[in-house]
Design brief:
It is a single chain. By secondary structure, the chain is mainly alpha-helical. It has a domain of about 90 residues. The protein is about 65% helix and about 5% strand. The strands form 2 sheets. A 3-stranded mixed sheet has the order 3-5-4, with helices on both faces. A two-stranded antiparallel sheet has the order 1-2. Helix 3 runs antiparallel to helix 4 and helix 15 crosses helix 21. It binds zinc ion. Zinc ion binds next to helix 14 and helix 15.
Length: about 550
């Protein structure tokens, strides 16, 4: 089989199909199981790499419409038929009861897929995707007229960094009013989704959607009760920290309370931080990785040398990006936009963490072994953010004078704490919704539930007079509609990442070595073992969260003192 992506990139189903037929005909005995899995991986990797390359080409700026069309055609003509064969191959492999080395966890995932799959749910899944596309289109079409310009809502983010409080409030109210216009349509989409999800769960023989979704996501290492425990710990140990930080913010802003438009602005009135951009940004990041760990630095050098990192300059755009995996080439590809703000640095660190994981898992022989699940993948990325944050100062090769470096870290730690509270709100909302489906089908009950959760986990923000806006706020949390029960993954990952950072404060060399070693396990171990290999604990408890929140608050205080 060709190894050059330019060559297999031209393949379509007529090239793949006979090879799949051969694979399906292969006798499945313990001695041939390795050949079977290797043959399967060779096909799946080629299809995956082609799809990823087409996706990257389609997403590059300026938009390549031909690539978008090719990507769509490839999914229809190759990816979907291959999925159908994969399902048969999985069933056969499970029937064989063969267990190759380092394959217990992938086998468990296969079993789960087989257990939860019901043909009758196929059309319902398709319907779910259609509704999700409608939601995404509605969100993307939300614009307001700002300073005479048609402006997409995410572009208002830059206004919230600005000193002019009246301007921030005006933008915020304009944005909230625009969201409220679509409220009834979102309510309708949500009701359809909740109904469909209940039906799919019932078709698959589960008591409710939460139980079904848990199984579908392959979650065997933690339970809904663990999540509820985590929410309670966040309420007890994170909420007071945010309340203290926001009280300091309020005093510095000189306002009576902290309103929703006061959260992003620098409380001392300084203009937003602007790191150097372009190749300099990448060069300095390379220097920081060199200080973290020479192996990680060498991966980053490879990315630079082979053009595997593309940064598109889009001032005013929301910071985003992703890391694709080119499975045959065993290389990552990072595509990210750079808006000229400090977010570029966090985004670059984050994507680099994902990229390191691609390098580290390159040696695993079978495709099923490489994906550890979102909790651990995000840990890999978030740990690099926290470890890299230690080197933001120019004195250690970073981007800013010492005072600005401290400010950037303070801002980020505050955002990380806030991420936990936001996660608790949206995760608790989902637990409520799928346990009380009849209430979740009532827009007024959803609105009231969201508002009460918000006030419980984030009482430090003053929403008085904005009750309608607060009640509608849940509709902008796209994960509720697009990726049910996924927000917990980031919360869990962040708690792991903070533990790795804490280890690095004592022994940076060992912390980095364990981090790398844990990445190399891919998805061959269960989550608690992956976390343990990285030097952390998969945790939901008071003690671990309190330690983490304390470290974050103490670090903020120390940086404040200068
Ligand atoms: Zn990520």
């Amino acid at each position: 089989m060709p190894t050059d992506p330019a060559e297999f990139g031209r393949w379509s189903w007529p090239e793949y199909q006979p090879l799949y037929v051969q694979l399906e005909a292969l006798e499945l005995t313990p001695s041939l199981a390795g050949d079977f899995l290797a043959g399967w991986t060779a096909l799946a990797d080629r299809i995956d790499e082609t799809q990823q390359r087409l996706r990257v080409a389609a997403d590059c700026d300026p938009p390549d419409t031909a690539a978008t069309a090719r990507h769509r055609a490839f999914v229809q003509q190759v990816v979907i038929p291959a999925c159908a064969v994969d399902q048969r191959l999985e069933a056969r492999f499970l029937d064989s009861e063969i267990e190759p080395p380092d394959f217990a966890v992938p086998l468990q995932a296969m079993r789960t897929r087989a257990e939860t799959w019901r043909p009758v749910n196929g059309p319902l899944r398709e319907r779910e995707h259609q509704i999700q596309r409608v939601y995404s289109r509605l969100i993307a079409a939300q614009t307001v007229s700002w300073k005479g310009q048609e402006t997409a809502l995410p572009q208002l983010a830059s206004v919230y960094d600005q000193k002019d409080r009246k301007g921030r409030e005006r933008a915020w109210r304009l944005e909230a009013a625009r969201r409220l216009v679509d409220g009834p349509r979102f309510d309708d989409l949500w009701q359809q989704l909740v109904g469909l999800r209940r039906e799919m769960a019932s078709n698959a023989g589960f008591r409710d959607y939460r139980e079904y979704r848990w199984r579908q996501l392959g979650r065997r290492d933690y339970t809904p009760e663990d999540c509820l425990r985590f929410h309670a710990a966040i309420e007890e140990f994170v909420q007071p920290v945010i309340t203290r930080l926001y009280e300091r913010r309020r005093r510095r802003l000189g306002t009576r309370t902290v309103r929703p438009w006061d959260i992003s602005v620098d409380p001392l009135g300084r203009p937003p931080l602007r790191p150097i951009d372009g190749s300099d940004l990448i060069e300095r990041a390379a220097g920081i990785f060199q200080q973290l760990d020479p192996h990680l630095a060498s991966y980053f050098e490879t990315m630079q040398a082979e053009g595997l990192l593309q940064m598109q300059h889009q001032p005013g755009e929301e910071p985003n990006g992703y890391c694709a995996r080119f499975a045959v080439s065993r290389r990552p590809f990072v595509l990210m936009n750079a808006s000229g703000s400090q977010h570029d640095v966090w985004n670059l660190f984050h994507q680099a963490g994902h990229a390191f994981q691609v390098f580290e898992t390159g040696g695993l022989p079978y495709q099923q072994q490489r994906h550890p699940g979102a909790e651990f993948s995000e840990l890999a990325a978030m740990a690099i953010e926290l470890l890299g944050a230690q080197f933001l100062s120019e004195q250690v090769g970073g981007f800013y004078p010492a005072a600005d470096a401290a400010r950037a870290r303070i801002e980020r730690l505050e955002q990380c704490l806030l991420r936990w509270s936001m996660m608790a709100i949206s995760d608790a909302f989902e637990h409520w919704a799928y346990e009380h489906v009849d209430a979740a089908l009532d827009p007024a009950a959803c609105a009231a539930q969201w508002a009460s959760l918000w006030l419980r986990y984030l009482p430090a923000v003053d929403w008085s007079g904005l009750e309608n806006e607060l009640q509608a706020e849940w509709q902008r949390h796209s994960s509720l509609l697009l990726h049910p029960f996924s927000s917990i993954e980031d919360g869990v990952a962040q708690l792991g990442a903070v533990q790795i950072w804490a280890n690095a404060l004592h022994d940076p060399i060992q912390a980095a070595a364990r981090y790398r070693q844990s990445l190399s396990l891919g998805g061959t171990r269960i989550l608690p073992e992956l976390f343990a290999a990285a030097g952390a604990e998969l945790a939901f408890d008071d003690h671990t969260l309190r330690e983490a929140a304390n470290l974050m608050e103490d670090t903020i205080d120390e940086l404040e003192r200068g």
